[in-house]
Structure formats: C-alpha cells, structure tokens
Amino acid sequence: MIRFDAVSKNYPNGTTAVDDLSLELAEGGITVLVGPSGCGKTTTLRMVNRMVEPTAGTVSLRGRDIRDVAAPELRRGIGYVIQHAGLFPHRTVLDNIATVPLLLGWGRKKARARAAELLELVGLPAGMAKRYPYQLSGGQQQRVGVARALGADPPVLLMDEPFSAVDPIVRAELQTELIRLQKELRKTIVFVTHDIDEAIKLGDNIAVFRTGGRLAQFDSPERLLADPADDFVAGFVGQDRGIRRLSFVDAAELPLREGRVLSAATPVARARAVDEPWVLVVDGDRRPLGWAAVGGLPDEGTLADAVLAPLGHTFSLAGDSARAALDAALLSPSRLAVGVDAQGKVVGVADAYELSAATSGPEKDGPSTSAAPSGEVGKQGPPVHEAGEKR
Ligand SMILES: Nc1ncnc2c1ncn2[C@@H]1O[C@H](COP(=O)(O)OP(=O)(O)OP(=O)(O)O)[C@@H](O)[C@H]1O
C-alpha cells in the first residue's frame, strides 16, 4: 500500500505542483491519477520512487517512510513505464527487457530466459526478441516497455501516460491487455493519464486532480460517475456519465419480465391477451426466435404462424453490463432487450425505460462499498483520503 500524508511539492520558481495531498492507494489495485495538464499527476507519481522529493509531508510504502530506503533499493521494487516506452535504441528487444535483471546481477542466461518469458506475457511473439526498437510499431514498443518494467517482478508499477502516443485502436488493445495482465499479476499500479475514459476503464480507484495540485475527488469509477464531488469533477467526467454508469451495473441485477416471452406453440389469442405491442417468440428450449408484432398476428393459429421481426442483439445475464442491455433494447424493433442465461436460453425481457432506471444505482451519499481500500487510516496526523470519501 502506498500512502501520501500531507504531501506538497513546491518548486523554487514558486510553482506549487502538489498541494497538501493525503491519499491511500490500495495494494494490488490500479489507482489512476487523472486531471488537466499541469495539475501535478506526474509529480505525484515520481514522488513514489523518489525521482521527485516532497517539500513537505511523507510518502510511505507498506508502512515504511520511503526516505528511509535508499533510492536504488526502493526502485528495485518499483517498475516504471513512460510514454514512448523509452527503450534503449541500440539494444534488442530481449536485451531491453533483460535490463533490470542484468543490473541485479542475475547472469546473462537467466536474465534472457526471464526476458523471453516476459515477452510472451505481454503478448509479443518470440520472433521479436532479436529486433531493435525502431523495427517495432508504437504499440509493440509500449508492450516491451511494460515487459521491461516487470523485469524483476516488482510489486509496484508506476505508469506515466504509457498509452498516450498510440492510435485509439492500439490504445484500447493495450488497455485490455493491462487488465488481463493485472488479473494475473496483482501489482500495485499507479497510472497517470489525462483521459477520463482510460481512467474509468482501468482504475479500481481514481484520483481526480484540479489545477494547482489539489485533489478534487478520490473514488471508485462507479462513484465518480454517480456522484461527482463538484462541478469541476462533473465537467471533467463528461456529459454522458449516466450512460457510462450503466457499464458498472451487472446485467444480472436488471428487472426482467417473463410475461412477454411466449413459445411458438402459443395460440395467437393468448398472445393478444398479453396486451403488449410486441411479444418475444421462443422455441421449446426457450431459445429466442424473433419478435411478433401483436397487431400483425394472423387471426388464428399459433405464434409459429406469425411473421417474426429479427431478434437483434441479446444480452447475457452471465457477464454483460446494463449498458449492453440498454444498447440491445435501443437497437431492437420492439425497444425491448432480451436477457439470456449462459446457455443462451431466454430469462426475460426489459424495456429501455426500465433499464435506464438502473442508473439510480448506488446510494448518493454513503461511502463506496466496492472499492474502499482497507488499512489504518487517519489515526494520527491529517486525514488520509480513501476512495469513496468526498472532499
Ligand atoms: N522541475 C520543475 N520546476 C518547476 N516547475 C515544475 C517542475 N516540474 C514540474 N513543474 C510544474 O509543476 C506543475 C505540475 O507538473 P506535472 O508534470 O506534475 O503535471 P501533470 O499533471 O503531470 O501535467 P501533464 O498532464 O501536462 O503531464 C506544472 O505547473 C509544472 O509546470
């Protein structure tokens, strides 16, 4: 766990880069520092590995004041990834990745074996090992940068706008890759970005800074979207936060109706009795076949005789979010979304209005239950801000 206690950084020219920051970053989670240019994100990050020394206050790592640890020793436990990867141009990919193990005196063979392992871990083919950085794309270089930072398996990873220099598609791939890696590695990651969407996608917790190096809000992405602390945070989070909040609501929690789901063997008279403009027709196994417009049903027979409108997308109750459900409803001819279980069998349907009610989600003023890091907080000295707390 990384903790900032009343930390400030003032430069001799009078700039306050970070102003009285108290913050506790959860172990094994991704904390994103986000905010407009010049708000002190990089300075905050660099105070963790002593590239920048605070003017006031204390930074501690797992309960130990980092000033008590010699900088080289401290940095052995902290990987560092920067924009443009910062690879050594005259060294091969493999030697770049092996840099830290070699510095630690692992011996060439062991260091290279570790580097080959890491190359695979970050999703690059073994054939790239002998290339030089200029022979790689920007996205591949960033992957090598991540592999190099993981060289000595450090528990902490500092990432300073690592994906900012690549195009949006590669950037999305790298973000997904980082989420995959993190599931496996459980590092304590501090990630700087000025992109709120990246912050929301990656962060277990997000610290939003305002100009002048002041913390505006520290919260989980869900809470940030649901309850921004003030107009600055609301403006920074963006206009469509209502829709984006739905990404954090599990589709399994949505209210579904079963009455509008009828088997193909149902007589049309019974379908009319449902008194809804559309019914969903399913087969004997509850697999969806399509939509029947009740006004257009034949006079007699069963729903098997009806002309069905195409089903559109379904959403899965075993893994999708409410956002996928709302999308399915908006694209459906019936404006209803079809929820299926892991086997693809229909559980029920929900309309767009009911789905949008899911945005009323978590309580407005209570503390976050999903992401607040635990630990000894605020026992002495100034209050330390945990995720979920309003400033
Ligand atoms: N060595 C320095 N001397 C004087 N001022 C500095 C120094 N380093 C940073 N600053 C100032 O401190 C403030 C915070 O800088 P920092 O790089 O931490 O911001 P940032 O939020 O990471 O910005 P960006 O998103 O543009 O990278 C800025 O006003 C910057 O100009």
Automatic annotation (TrEMBL):
SUPFAM superfamilies from the UniProt entry: P-loop containing nucleoside triphosphate hydrolases
One Pfam family recorded for the sequence: ABC_tran
Enzyme class, spelled out: translocase
Organism this protein belongs to: Streptomyces fructofermentans
Annotated region described as Disordered, given as residue ranges: 357-391
Cross-referenced PANTHER family: OSMOPROTECTANT IMPORT ATP-BINDING PROTEIN OSMV
Name recorded for this polypeptide: ABC-type quaternary amine transporter
Recorded GO MF terms: ABC-type quaternary ammonium compound transporting activity; ATP binding; ATP hydrolysis activity
Domain ABC transporter per the UniProt entry, residue ranges: 2-237
Swiss-Prot/TrEMBL keywords: ATP-binding, Nucleotide-binding, Transport
Lineage, broadest ranks: Bacteria, Bacillati, Actinomycetota, Actinomycetes, Kitasatosporales
InterPro entries, alphabetized: AAA+_ATPase, ABC_transporter-like_ATP-bd, ABC_transporter-like_CS, P-loop_NTPase
UniProt family annotation: Belongs to the ABC transporter superfamily.
Enzyme Commission identifier(s): 7.6.2.9
Keyword Ligase in record: no
